Amino acid sequence: MFKKSVQKFSGKICEVEIGTGEKAIKLGGENVLPFYSFDGNTGNAPKLGMDITDDLEGWPKAILELYKDVCNDPVAWAKCIEEKYAPDFICLKLDSADPNGKDNSVEECAKTAKAVVEAIKTPLVVAGTGNHDKDAKLFEKIAQELDGHNVLLLSAVEDNYKTIAAAGAMAYNHKIGAESSVDINLAKQINILVNQLGVANEKIIDNVGCSAAGYGYEYVISTLDRVRLAALGQNDKTLQVPIITPVAFETWKVKESVDEETWDNLEERGISMEVSTAAGVLASGSNAVILRHPKSLETIKKFVSELLA
């Protein structure tokens, strides 16, 4: 009689919790490859979030039209998404803090973040501007103002991890996104640096980088594969943390989503880019993805449930 062999790994991804109360979510916990339920424990199901912003500049028309009644108010927008689409978490992008844009003060942005987190029960992820100096100040203030809400601060990089990790994880017990640039060695490095400050893996979620499908995407996928295989197969404890991938940040700014209307419906193309990108990173090891369009959320929910069935 045929007996199927089972691939066993010595490593396991730690669990990390975001949020509070009944809607708090846990990422990680698996000791097998993504969706390999036939080999062992797949841990917590991948979590799917949706993003909003406090600065609409540069956002695609299709998304703004979808939320035209609420998109000028982050609190109303967050409540709308929570009630209509019920994502596992909501990501607030504080684009207005960007020094190359509106350059809103950290106090003003922290006030917005506090208003949002107090208006919803869904766990909150707060994303910065990508400006390392501004993000350090921004997350330090937000960590203080959102004390007790157990949010994820996305992200800390090598240039600012000391400030963000110290304030976010150590002083106020939030979770830290450790960001690297699509390279397993860089992912290890930022995790080691954060660990050396005294932050345990249970407070770290990696963002190893992302691109839209067709834009160096194969490198993203191979990096995710390598990170997961090292964590599980080589029992590399520095990489045994969940991974979050901000898919929406990339897929809604490429030409397939925002340019050349003669190529067919822009909204449908954007959804296709988002779904294709999200499906690939989830199948390669990401424990959570940030999406933007409700149809993308619906499609990826079905994708995840069918693979775990």
UniProtKB/TrEMBL annotation:
UniProt superkingdom: Bacteria
Residues covered by the CO dehydrogenase/acetyl-CoA synthase delta subunit TIM barrel domain: 15-256
One Pfam family cited in the UniProt record for this chain: CdhD
Signal peptide location: none
NCBIfam families to which the protein is assigned, alphabetical: PRK04452.1-2, WLP_AcsD
PANTHER family listed in its UniProt record: ACETYL-COA DECARBONYLASE_SYNTHASE COMPLEX SUBUNIT DELTA, PTHR36214
Protein name: Acetyl-CoA synthase corrinoid iron-sulfur protein small subunit
